[in-house]
Each structure stands twice: as C-alpha cells, then as structure tokens.
C-alpha cells in the first residue's frame, strides 16, 4: 500500500513471514529435483518400464489436483497458517513412505500422499505471501515461493549427485526420505508466524488483524489505510457491531464462492478466472516440466553419456533456475508483471526452437556433433533462464493477487488445479511424445505452444504492478482497460 509523499520501505517482519511460508516451496522443489535423478536408480533396482516411470513422475501432480481443490476450502475455514502446517505433515508422511519404498506400490502411495501436500503448498504459499505484503513490495515477496521451488530443485539435484554414490538400495531411498525432516520443522515452525490479516478480517477478528497489520506495515498510517481498505473489501461497514462481523464470518467460510466464480461470475471475475487459468495452463504446457524432470534424458540424447556428467549437467539447470528466479524477484515490482511475462515468453520461443534444432541434428547425424551437444546444453539453460525471468514467478504472483478477497482462496485453487493437470500431463506423456515426434520434434511443439502463450498474455493479462489487492476488480473492468489504453496512446503521441 503506497502512502503518498512517503518513500516505501522494506518491511523485515513481512519478509520473515513470507520466508518461513516459502520453506514449503523449497521442500516441494526438492522433491521435484531429487526425483529426476532418483528415477535412474529406481529403474536400476526395480526394472521399471518407461510407462511406469512416467506414472511415478506424474502421479504426484494428479494427486496435487485433489489437494489444491481441497486446500481452497480448508484455508478459508481453518486459516492460511494452519493450511501450511497440514501441507507440511502431508509432505513428511509422503517422504517417509517413499524413503521406505520396499516396492513400486509403496513408492506410488508415498508420491500420492506427497502430491496432496503439493496441492496444498502451491495454493497456500503465494496466497499467504500476497496477503501479508503491501502493494509496493508484493511482487518481490509473493515471488519468493517460486524462488523457493528453484532452491529446492537445486538441492535435489545436488543430493542426486552426492547420494547417488552410495549403495543402490540406500542412495535413492535417502534422497527421497530426507525431506521428512524439514517438513516436520516447518509444520511446527509456521505456528509461531502470524495469520493473514485479510483472513482475520473476513473471520471477524478485527483486533487481531489490526495487530498483524501494524507489524507488517512500515507506519501506523499505512496500517490504518490497509485496514480500512480490507474492511471495505470484506463488506464491513460498522466494526463496532458484533452481529455484523459474526454474519460476515459465516458468510465467507466458502459459502456461495463457487457460484460467484463459476455459475454467475461478474464480467471482471470472469476475466480474472480466464487470466488465472490461462497463465497456469501455459506455465506447464510450454514444456518446463519436461526439462526439469527429464533433463538427464535430454542431455543423454544430446550426447552426454556418463552418469556423473549427466547429474552434473543437470545441476547446471538448477543453478540457472535459482540465478534468474532471484533476478526476477527484484524486477517484478520495478518492471511489472506484464512486461516480464512477454519478454520471458519470447525468450522461451527462441530457446525451444534452437533446442529442437540441435537435438534433431544430433539424432540424424551418424557421428557425434560437439557443436550440437554444446548448443543443446546452452539452449536448455537459456530456456530455463527465460522461464524463470518471467513466466515462472509471475504465474504465482499474478494468480494470487487478482481475485477479490472472498474468492481468492478458491480462485487460486482452480488455477493450481489446472497447473497440476498440465504438469501431470507433460510429466506422464513426455517420453511417449518424444518417441512419437522425436526428441527435437517435441521441443518444436513446445515452441509452437509458447507462441500461443505470447498472444494470450498480450491480449488478456493487464498490468497489476503497484495496485492494492482491493483495487483488482477495477483493474479487470473494461472501462479501466480502455482508460489505460487511452493514456498510453496519449503518452506515445505526445
């Protein structure tokens, strides 16, 4: 929330809250990264087929679909903080089962339990971060969960490299089971953090909400202004009327939300839902999961044959993701969501086209092509860099900030459900796709989808930088968009 005439300062307490909440994303990222290498050793011990490996990779995301839809209602009813705790316990249980892993069936069961936790985590971390943050720092703070995923993926890749040197029966089990420790720490640690002030207002706990806002705001004036706007958005006219706040809490425990979102949405809510679903759809339809989960296979197809070199090259993917995710966090509030998104997607189109070309040349050549191998690695890193400069973090920031207060949790849960469906679709079909289209053809396909994504983002996603959460309905109104376009044209003519 911007206080005119005052310079926005960075609130360390809000940063600490978001940092703790982002730990759930680190744990999820670790699971994604470590599985890419663990599958090599699981296949070696159990002799799993390509189809079974696709199921093992993708089943987590199908279960996350269930988790994300359940999390929307849960975090409206129990609160954002307790929902993070539930996600952590689910992760812990899933990690223990996978670390035990005496056979393929138990591995799948563990992946399913962890998957439900993923659904909870991906929905709640960005929502909590967005609701704690002020308008001027929301892009930075709400993108930290995405950065956390990148850190987790890199830790997973590093664990693959070092734990892969242990015996076959111990190595991959330790890779998967070790995530239970930080999950337990987070499940208990999150309980000392404050609840979202917006959820507290919706529940009628105005005094508690005011105390939290005083901590996460830089001045008392800023806290008062944020408190006032949240109350207006929640529909509280007289905070001294206990009956009104009780009725409000009963009304906003998820009642009537699905009707307002899907059955009879207003034109602005319909646009928000289209934007959220679209950005989540394209985040994975453009192929990032194929690279993050199957990078050892991609590099092997490009010509890297040694197991150690495969895992080392994969670590480079994780390092690239963290570097550019970190850079993006500082640009979201300066450059804006829309500009980062468009430039990021343009870079992805180019990188995917080059990757498709280089892998095709490797495949049709009768001898080893060092230049094509090098180009494949560079194009893969370039794709990961482009994705994490825009589409990666913007997806979570954008979808968590655009919905009205009452619809936010359920609206984000729909977006996350679409995200997990697409993630599962790519994870469970990539091997089959590249066997049908060739490995190069698969990435040419992703380049084509990225072009469609570029057009969608250009026409359907307005800029939200610097806008308060309570202003989003105005941003997504047709009159506002016309006024913004007219002002832009006027500046260009002048």
From TrEMBL:
What protein family is recorded?
A: Belongs to the major facilitator superfamily. Sugar transporter (TC 2.A.1.1) family.
Q: What NCBIfam families does this protein map onto? A: SP
Q: Which UniProt keywords apply?
A: Membrane, Sugar transport, Symport, Transmembrane, Transmembrane helix, Transport
Q: Which InterPro entries match?
A: MFS_dom (IPR020846), MFS_sugar_transport-like (IPR005828), MFS_trans_sf (IPR036259), STP/PLT_plant (IPR045262), Sugar/inositol_transpt (IPR003663), Sugar_transporter_CS (IPR005829)
* Residues passing through the membrane, by range: 12-30, 55-75, 82-100, 106-128, 140-162, 174-193, 271-295, 310-333, 340-364, 370-391, 412-433, 439-461
Where does the protein end up? Membrane
One GO CC annotation, please? membrane
Q: Does the keyword Signal apply?
A: no
Q: Does the keyword Ligase apply?
A: no
Q: What name does UniProt use for this protein?
A: Major facilitator superfamily (MFS) profile domain-containing protein
Q: Which PANTHER family match?
A: POLYOL TRANSPORTER 3-RELATED, SOLUTE CARRIER FAMILY 2, FACILITATED GLUCOSE TRANSPORTER
Pfam families, sorted: Sugar_tr
Q: Where in this chain does the record put each Major facilitator superfamily (MFS) profile domain?
A: 17-465
Any one GO molecular-function label of the UniProt entry = carbohydrate transmembrane transporter activity
Membrane topology is: Multi-pass membrane protein
């Amino acid at each position: 929330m911007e206080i005119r005439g005052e310079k926005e300062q960075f609130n360390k307490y809000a940063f600490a809250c978001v940092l703790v909440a982002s730990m759930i994303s680190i744990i999820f990222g670790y699971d994604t990264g470590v599985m890419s290498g663990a599958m090599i050793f699981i296949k070696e011990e159990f002799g799993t087929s390509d189809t079974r490996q696709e199921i093992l990779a993708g089943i987590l995301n199908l279960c996350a679909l269930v988790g994300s839809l359940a999390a929307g209602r849960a975090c409206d009813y129990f609160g954002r903080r307790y929902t993070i705790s539930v996600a952590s316990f689910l992760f812990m249980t899933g990690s223990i089962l996978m670390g035990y892993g005496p056979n393929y069936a138990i591995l799948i069961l563990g992946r399913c339990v962890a998957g439900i936790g993923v659904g909870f985590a991906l929905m709640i971390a960005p929502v909590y971060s967005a609701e704690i943050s002020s308008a001027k720092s929301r892009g930075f703070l709400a993108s930290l969960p995405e950065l956390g995923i990148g850190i987790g993926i890199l830790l997973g890749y590093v664990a693959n490299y070092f734990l892969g040197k242990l015996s076959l029966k111990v190595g991959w089990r330790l890779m998967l089971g070790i995530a239970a420790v930080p999950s337990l720490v987070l499940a208990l640690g999150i309980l000392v953090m404050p609840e979202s002030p917006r959820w507290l207002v919706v529940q009628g706990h105005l005094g508690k909400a005011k105390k939290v806002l005083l901590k996460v705001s830089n001045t008392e004036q800023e806290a008062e202004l944020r408190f006032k706007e949240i109350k207006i958005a929640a529909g509280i006219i007289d905070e001294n009327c206990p009956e009104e706040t009780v009725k409000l809490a009963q009304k906003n425990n998820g009642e009537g939300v699905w009707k307002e979102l899907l059955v009879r949405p207003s034109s602005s809510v319909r646009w928000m839902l289209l934007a959220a679903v679209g950005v989540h759809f394209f985040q994975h339809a453009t192929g990032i999961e194929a690279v993050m989960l199957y990078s050892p296979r991609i590099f092997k197809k490009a010509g890297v044959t040694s197991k150690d070199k495969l895992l080392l090259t994969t670590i480079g993917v994780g390092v690239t993701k963290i570097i550019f995710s970190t850079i993006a966090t500082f640009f979201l509030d300066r450059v804006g969501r829309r500009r980062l998104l468009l430039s990021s997607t343009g870079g992805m189109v180019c990188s995917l086209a080059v990757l498709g070309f280089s892998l095709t040349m490797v495949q049709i050549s009768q001898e080893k092509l060092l230049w094509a191998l090098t180009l494949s690695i560079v194009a893969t890193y370039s794709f990961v860099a482009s994705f994490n400069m825009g589409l990666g973090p913007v997806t979570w920031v954008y979808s968590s900030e655009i919905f009205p207060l009452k619809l936010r949790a359920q609206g984000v849960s729909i977006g996350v459900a679409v995200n997990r469906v697409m993630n599962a679709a790519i994870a469970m079909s990539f091997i089959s796709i590249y066997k049908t289209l060739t490995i190069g053809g698969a990435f040419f396909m992703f380049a084509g989808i990225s072009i469609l994504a570029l057009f969608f983002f250009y026409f359907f996603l307005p800029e939200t930088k610097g806008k308060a959460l309570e202003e989003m309905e105005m941003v997504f109104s047709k009159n506002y968009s016309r006024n913004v376009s007219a002002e832009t044209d006027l500046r260009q003519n002048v």
